[in-house]
Specification:
This protein is α+β, with helices and mostly antiparallel strands. Helix content is about 35%, strand content about 15%. The chain has 3 domains: about 110 residues, no CATH class; about 60 residues; about 80 residues, no CATH class.
């Protein structure tokens, strides 16, 4: 008997998964550790779906071959009988193993007798008992593997949803900065309806009729959103956008190049090639060219001409303007 079982359906799906117990592929009822089970290929199923806890094949060998005429008493009513009175037809499976008088199910008592009867071969008793214990252990392993697969699938779904949400959030931020989405409260009415295939203003995906759509009306412009996520993300990001102080727009290129020439003339920056150049998010340092702070988190360049000289911080456009001006003076190619 194999120690593990690979069940179909344990692959991580792309939809929500419900926590379910292992089920018999015949009757679709849950499989429990105390059930009597059989194998068909890689499938685990009830030996008898009508009586999931009936005797196994090994236990039937003991009953019909060695204990058929043994006497036992009902633990409920005390009535004494022989085992063949419980199931007169040994070739018919599924007959109830009930007390002839009180009709209580005696399957547990019969199984105990089969495992302890001194008149049957000990090797057969041990084999039957070992087979049952192995089956119980296997069912518990399968249930634990199923539980772990469900947990892993839920965690993966959460990560996928979070990743998709962050991607939409980044897109909304870009559109807010570029003016592609409203940055303030829309004075017009807001209405919700079933999707009609319109493209969502936030994620650019069509809104199908199976999804709820929110429409912002601003003048003659209708702005559709997915109601479930995109609209809420836009509303959150626009509020953050409104509360974030923003600097005036960067000067045009001619003005930047004039500022770069002034920085060279005044000695704030040389015309030599930097010994070190770093790029990364700004910490809010002031640009040496234009004198304006580089917004925290925005891409900047830091250049050093001698070690351990303190670095000079520049906007990306200011760095480009200084590179053009210094190469015009030195005649060196732009590095």
């Amino acid at each position: 008997m194999a120690s593990t079982l690979h069940r179909p359906g344990t692959v991580v799906p792309a939809v929500a998964i419900e926590m379910t117990a292992t089920k018999c592929p015949r009757c679709f009822q849950p499989v429990f550790p105390d059930d009597t089970l059989a194998f068909e290929g890689s499938h685990l199923m009830h030996f008898d779906c009508g009586r999931p806890r009936d005797l196994s094949r090994q236990e039937r060998v003991l009953l019909f071959g060695h204990c058929w005429g043994h006497q036992m008493a009902c633990p409920a009513c005390g009535h004494e009988f022989r085992l063949f009175e419980l199931n007169p037809n040994r070739f018919e499976r599924g007959n109830p193993t009930c007390c002839p008088r009180c009709r209580i199910d005696l399957i547990a008592s019969v199984r105990e007798h089969l495992y302890t009867c001194p008149l049957s071969p000990e090797v057969l008793r041990r084999q039957a008992q070992a087979a049952r214990e192995n089956t119980r252990r296997l069912v518990k392993q399968v249930r634990e593997l199923t539980r772990q697969a469900d947990v892993a699938a839920r965690e993966l779904l959460g990560a996928m949803k979070q990743s998709a949400s962050e991607a939409v959030r980044r897109t909304i931020k870009v559109k807010l900065h570029a003016g592609g989405l409203p940055q303030v409260d829309v004075p017009g009415p807001t209405r919700a309806c079933a999707g009609d295939g319109s493209k969502c203003a936030a994620c650019d995906r069509p809104i199908s009729r199976h999804h709820l759509m929110v429409i912002l009306v601003s003048g003659a412009t209708c702005i559709p959103f997915h109601a479930s996520d995109c609209f809420a993300l836009w509303d959150e990001e626009r509020r953050t956008f409104q509360s974030t102080p923003r600097l005036a727009a960067m000067p045009d290129e001619p003005i930047l190049r004039e500022k770069a020439r002034e920085a060279i003339r005044s000695g704030r920056l040389p015309t030599a090639k930097p010994g070190r150049t770093f790029g990364g998010p700004s910490s809010g340092a002031v640009c040496v060219i234009c004198g304006e702070p580089v917004p925290r988190g925005e891409m900047e360049f830091e250049i050093q001409f001698a070690v351990p000289e303190a670095g000079h911080h520049l906007h990306v456009r200011c760095f480009s303007a200084w590179e053009l001006e210094r190469t015009n003076i030195t005649g060196a190619p732009i590095s």
